[in-house]
Amino acid sequence: MGEVLARHLDWLYGTQRFGVQPGLERIEALLSRLGNPERRFRSVLVGGTNGKGSVSAALASALQASGQRTGIFTSPHLTHFAERFRVDGEPVAEPELLAALEMVRPHAEALEATFFEVVTAVGCWLFAHADVEWAVVEVGMGGRLDATNALSPELSVITNIGLDHTEVLGETLAAIAAEKAGILRAGQPAVTAAMPALWPVLEQVGADLWALGREFSFRVTGLSLSGTALELHWPDGAQMLDLQTPLLGAHGAANAALAAAAALRLGVSREAVRQGLAQTRWPGRLEYLTVQGQGWLLDGAHNPDGAQALTDTLDALDLRPVRLVFGASADKALEEMVQILAPAVSDVVLTQAQWSPRAAEPGTLRPLWEAQGIPVREAASPVQALELATPASWAASQAAAPVVVCGSLYLVGEVRGVLLRQGAERRERWQ
């Protein structure tokens, strides 16, 4: 089975050559050929610029805690493709994944479907055949023309809105907000943590929108490397929910609050919300690991907003300055990211994800860091970067100050695979 599955995955990764082609025609045709599996479960769409995966993971955990069989679709994966499709918290098994690919492939080839369209269809087929009651689906890029928007969500979430993918979504926050508002449905519930100035753009769709800072709010009551404690408030102060989450930082608390509000709107009990948020697991996003006495903080921050959230969290945890392992895609706002991160950094080891053709060469990143006065070393691979970043106290029983790894989810995935000895798929990844 392993060899057959590998051949199908080789084909699937080959569809990346079609690039990203916004539009719903192909995905709708593909789902129709498959018997519209997306109609066999209830769904939530989670869009936004940052925090989509965290909110999706927390909301899916709350739904699961309420006793409902729950699927979650996220992207990209960190180390293994099956991570994109989880049922009740567990990645789908090889036989199910193979069956889905064998079913979807001939139709996808006939339609010349793109990589993300195929992956979306595979997720819908898997969830339908796993008899999930709910699927929490992370939107890819934008919203209006994203393949996931072929689903009919009973609730939609827009986490926040920042300047990212401007070449496709538009160069202003209002333009990007209008694209992301495409996942909202008139008359259907929705929640958002977008800035107040963008609420009118989102409300044009006619969804029943709850906004963080208006219909609900939160207050952080405790913060450590093990997680965050917060209170969820309603405007009149009459209702309050005490929550604990492994998600770190103020933005982790905001994502937890957003997921809690969404779960409550879906009728999940307060106790199930508490339990689900406490049990949330979202690897590679401000994830703290200890390996042989050394602490590592892995974060997929890959744009300026993500870099700012990471810096703010390091401040709140009183961890700065930190040693940083950094690698990023060449098409990101690299100079702005470096300027945001630099004040929190003592020195940096530059590297690049080995399986991401989009990764910037360390040599092109060096001048950006040196312009900020940060000592720089270069590493040819993530493995070498970890060796250079590891202090002499690696084997000490007392955990050393954490080394931070950030800049790209592809890099974080490769690093995590090395640290946990899980390996990683050896295929080029554009998406």
TrEMBL record:
Protein family membership: Belongs to the folylpolyglutamate synthase family.
Transmembrane segments: none
Stretches assigned to the Mur ligase central domain: 46-263
EC number: 6.3.2.17
Superkingdom of the organism of origin: Bacteria
A Pfam family per the record: Mur_ligase_C
Co-factor(s): Mg(2+)
CC terms in the record's Gene Ontology section: cytoplasm
GO MF annotation, one: metal ion binding
Residue ranges occupied by any Mur ligase C-terminal domain in the UniProt entry: 284-408
Entry protein name: tetrahydrofolate synthase
Reactions accelerated catalytically: (6S)-5,6,7,8-tetrahydrofolyl-(gamma-L-Glu)(n) + L-glutamate + ATP = (6S)-5,6,7,8-tetrahydrofolyl-(gamma-L-Glu)(n+1) + ADP + phosphate + H(+)
